[in-house]
Design a protein that fits this description.
Pfam families: ENOD93. Keywords: Membrane, Transmembrane, Transmembrane helix. This is Early nodulin-93-like. It comes from Centaurea solstitialis (yellow star-thistle). With about 90 residues, the protein is an all-alpha fold. The protein is about 95% helix and about 0% strand. It has helices spanning about 1-40, 40-45, 50-89. The two termini are about 20 Å apart. The relative contact order is 0.16.
Length: about 90
């Protein structure tokens, strides 16, 4: 029983990593386009150097990764918890 639970936990973690990576990639692209465009304008050029642009993009991508991965893992754990609870009753 323990090996089945471990395998299920690994699968849930893997699913969370895949979903988080997809979300991070999408968030990076969606954030990069307006950030780079604003960096080309005169006001943006004066206030957003390349480091600031990279920091904005990577922060959004990192946040998207952790939020989506956490929500995916918790949702699958909750779903499996309800299945195990129904099986016991």
């Amino acid at each position: 029983m323990a090996s089945f639970d471990q395998a299920m936990a690994k699968q849930q973690s893997r699913d969370g990593v895949v979903a988080g990576t997809k979300a991070a990639g999408l968030a990076a692209i969606v954030t990069a386009i307006p950030t780079v465009a604003i960096g080309r304008m005169p006001l943006g050029r004066a206030n957003l150097n390349y480091t600031a642009q990279a920091l904005i993009i990577s922060t959004v991508a990192g946040a998207a990764y952790f939020i989506v991965a956490d929500k995916t893992i918790l949702a699958s754990a909750r779903r499996n918890s309800f299945k195990n609870n129904e099986a016991r009753n």
